[in-house]
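Might I ask for a little of your time on a matter of protein folding? Here, with my thanks, is the record as I have it:
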Amino acid sequence: MPPGRFGDSDLRRRQELKPQPKRADTRGVKREELEVLIDEARRFAHSSIDAQVPARLTEALKHAVHPADRGHLLLARALARQGASDPGIAVTDAVEAVRLLQKTDLTSTLGLAMACAAVMLQRTGDTAQAIDFAVSALVIMDDHAATGYEGVRAANALSVIFTQLSAFDLAAKSTAVAMRGARTVGDDTRAAVSFTTVHNAVEAAHAGVALDAELAREAVAWVLKISDPVTRELYGQGMRCELIMVDLGDVADRRPPGDAHTALLDARAELDAGRTHYERAPHRGVTWHRLVRAGVARRVNDLEVASALIEAVLPDLHQDGDGLWITRALRERAAIRAAQGDVAGAYDCALALERRHRSMQVSAGGWLAEQISQRAESERVRSDLRRRAEELTREVEVDPVTGVRTRRWLEARFDQLSADGGSGAVIVLDIDRFKAINDVHGHHLGDQVLGQVGAILADLFRSTDPVARYGGEEFVVVLPETTLVVATDLAELARRGLAEQPWNDLAPGLSVTTSAGVAEGPLRSVRDVMRLADAALYRAKESGRNCVVAA
């Protein structure tokens, strides 16, 4: 029997065990309700937003059947969630929105979805995928016609990507495009573009690159006139202090003279007053505001407050994944510690080293971003956008080693099942003593084992219930409308089939067995059901491995 295939009797048994597929929900979403929801979610992600909006978008997704409607709703939810501490939440929605929107003629919306996915992927550390999505967004966008909500927000997102790559010249170009378009749109989009404009100018200044100061001052003036108090008082005052600190520069003198220092003292009270909006602002916005407060406190010689703020904010920054803000916080920490003792010389050395590091980043990032621009121009000639979007989505959703779905796809599937409801079962299957296989036979053969296990499991389960690699040597499959008895039989069929494979063909003496845990429950709480299955897997391991345990 060849690897990856089951015998005829097993195939017949598998067909008998298969539950009938659930009938699709053919209900739609009322157009006016969809438009209202999307309009609410489009509010500036860093300002106050109705905490129920993501939940209402999730509810609407239960009834949306058309790709365009689902794509719009997922993109709106990604934008509404981008201020959360975990960028992976928004990544899943943005990538799925790209997959759906590439089936439509909504080119500008697709461009925004790709740009949004690029920003979120960069924050998760997946730079390669972020660049690919940024390229696709550049292909779609016309740099000279960023008008309307989608065009302006896409240009703004691309400027964020370029800044993350320290390609400040390209970031400035995208920022200028976004600012021009922002003059014709609502306050929420104008505030988002303004924040990015100031953020880019500040990060460029830290790297020794001067951007258009007038554009940054115009951005601050816009935000300080917005009626929303969170946007105006938390972000507006924070952005104002950011620019004052740029004027002051990074100096070791505890009491830097001049008008900028006086202005910073005058602005501090209004900056600190922004704390009253912390409960209404997203996590990412609060983290940024504390970082700004730490910088101001250090520059006005309130070192105890500055130190407390930096120590409190660093864990959040590491969780958020913004490399530039982490670098900035570490630099502030060095400056605070230097000011607290007589270590100005050591601080100057540390600052010089940091500047060298940032200079290298600027050089490498600028080169990389230029390649992105050139690739985008080349891709425009071919303009095969639909094919590229499909390829990008496939790369994110399919694990290259096993050929099954990725954990990112599984998380999106969990969200869908949580919204759809119903009941079902979850199987968690793990290769026994996989570390020993790698240690004895090498990682190359270990990857071959993973690949064959993935192929065998994919052959067993229905295409409507794909297998996903959850991590390492662990695989998960969710079976809607399936009882615990049927799911346990399927898990046992998989365990037996894997144990009977001719693993000696890969390496003499090689034996591969698996253990599995199975649980059943309401799919609205599918992650809880998975935890039960995982606990059952643990009991299977304790029972000697190579067995199936049902919760």
Q: What stands out?
A: The chain has a mean pLDDT of 80. The CA atoms of residues 102 and 386 lie 6 Å apart. The beta strands are 423-431, 468-471, 474-480, 514-522, 548-550.
